[in-house]
Design a protein that fits this description.
- The protein is an all-alpha fold.
- The protein contains four helices and two strands; from the N terminus they run αααββα.
- The protein has a two-stranded antiparallel ribbon with strand order 1-2.
- Strand 1 and strand 2 form a beta hairpin.
Length: 138
């Protein structure tokens, strides 16, 4: 009984977040999966285009974070900071592909796991299914 770890009792943010996340997921679905783009330069282009969409999503999400809500605000802000780190990892991957076509995507760690696990866990616990990380880089 009670709330799970990271679950927000106030459903205002999760409810509001679903729309921009769903819109971004729909935009990303229109792009070819980066892992299917054979030439490394094309793969980098797709990742960078997706990164632009993800950055815009995070910016929009930051604009709807409840103000003055203590732990709620802190938890959401940490989650959005994780998104920033994840997008930076994706950008490093795209940059690497431009000089070395064998570059592999690597993520920053959080609590000894890939940062996408923390992002996805927060989204799932708060029933924001569209706010999970995309599986486009393989």
């Amino acid at each position: 009984p009670g709330l799970m770890v990271d679950e927000l009792a106030d459903r205002t943010f999760p409810t509001a977040a679903e729309a921009p996340c769903a819109a971004t997921a729909a935009q990303l679905a229109q792009l070819p999966p980066a892992f299917r783009s054979v030439p490394a330069g094309e793969r980098a282009d797709v990742v960078e285009q997706a990164n632009g969409e993800l950055r815009a999503m995070v910016q929009e999400l930051r604009s709807i974070v409840p103000q003055g809500a203590g732990q709620v605000t802190t938890g959401i802000t940490e989650w959005l900071d994780d998104w920033d780190r994840y997008i930076a990892d994706r950008q490093s991957y795209a940059d690497g592909l431009r000089t070395d076509p064998t570059t592999r995507f690597t993520e920053s760690a959080k609590a000894n796991r890939q940062i996408s696990r923390a992002i996805d866990s927060f989204a799932q616990v708060n029933r924001m299914q569209s706010c999970t990380t995309p599986g486009d880089v393989g």
